[in-house]
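Example 3.2
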Amino acid sequence: MKNFADLIVELDRTTRTQGKLAALRKFFAGATAADAAWGVHFLCGGKLSRAIPPRQLREWGAEAAGLPPWLFEECCEAVGDLAETLALILPPAGRARVSPLAELVEQDLLPLVTLPIEQRRDKLRALWYRLGTAERFILHKLLSGNFRVGVSRQLVIKAVAEHAGVPSEVVAHRLMGNWQPTAANYEQLLSHATSDAEISQPYPFCLAHPLEEPAAALGSAGDYLFEWKWDGIRAQVIRRGGATFIWSRGEELIGDQFPEIVAAVRGLPEGTVLDGEIVGWRDGAVLPFQDLQRRIGRKRLGPKILRDVPVALLAFDLLELHGQDCRWRPLRQRRAELERLLAPRESAEQSADERLRLSPSLAVADWDQASRWRGSARTQRAEGLMLKRLDGPYPVGRPRGEWWKWKVVPYTIDAVLVYAQRGHGRRASLYTDYTFAVWDRDQLVPLAKAYSGLTDAEIRRVDAFVRRNTIERFGPVRSVRPELVFELAFEDLQLSSRHKSGLAVRFPRMLRLRDDLSIRDADQLTTIRQMLAAKTAAAQFTEE
């Protein structure tokens, strides 16, 4: 347990990816197979069944610390995190003992679920008595189901792969499905016999640079292929060994989430790899990304969600055909082969064709025409344009000059800060997550939540404002006096029955504090509805 607690402390100390990677490698190098297996499980988002509700943790923690409930709650408010409060406020351990992580989980935590509530309390008190502060913190996070750490699943996979000396794709393949945290399964993760994963192995994704200079500086528009930059999930679809594998850009196998696409690609030739974007798709058009989000991360896909949010793969590149690597051929050749591969099939297979489609290229004679296409991107529910050199290969990573993303100019509005909530991790003691409102006649109506875009100095300033100007508290949320105006940016908006404003915005972020504006200068809801109306009208005009 101590080595895992030390890892969490080290991960919290650094924001550098290489620093986090080094800490992970150190943990895996020193951990037993059983401890490393549970470490992988928790670091990749795995949870335990909640054996003790937070309310009980608060009650028992206050009792053990000898504090009245109100004072314990004040301590939680000051610290900003229940697990950390408990770790700090409980009496020192009587006989601290180092317990391996696997032993703690398997012998102490997993059996809790089956015990009567009084026995759970006694068991927890015994654990408090033998664990140090850092270990208690991890214990409470695991018990509450709120264990989160500042590393991605991809980084954990990379650390295991580097420790084992095997490709990351192999480790990701072995972790797919219902991977169980056992010593034997962890040893299999490290195995150098990689034939079990070779058929599923994807290629490194080619990524685009944002186009921030004038487009004409790239040379002739005729040297590029122009496509929509779709707002979906980037994916590689692999057809090998009679099986289908769908990999996200984050190196996760996501075929279980998109069975329609798995079914649609079964007719592809053996040894085929496509690159494309998974989007919500109905009646020949892309659905809003908010609809697609309803399917992301679900463990089970019932008939209703499959019916409500159908999907399609919009394929835009061919990386492998008949088992031959195509990536070093010029894009114009790969595109021509992809078009032949995805040519319309027999009418009896049209339902499959609907789920596997060629992402269209756009006719562009010059940069003025390209700019006009870009201006109409929102009518296609796209984020802008992709520009790809026709004579270029499919390189690894993000080489400058091959692929460019030319995104649409974001919407901007002025809105008023009305609610604030503490952040997570390093920001757990600061109010960094904000809710903004606009005017609906004479009433402020919440429209968007945002937590990015401010400097550290600005965050400290807003945090101080929140503490001085709190009106009401609703659990972790504070209602604040409406005085601060912010300029917000967002990529898209749509109607939403789930929000009081009737609108939902996409990728909201803060551009700047508007000290030059009073709250009466903030935008009206009617203005934002006019933005949506203009977008809808443009889409209808394009279709006609």
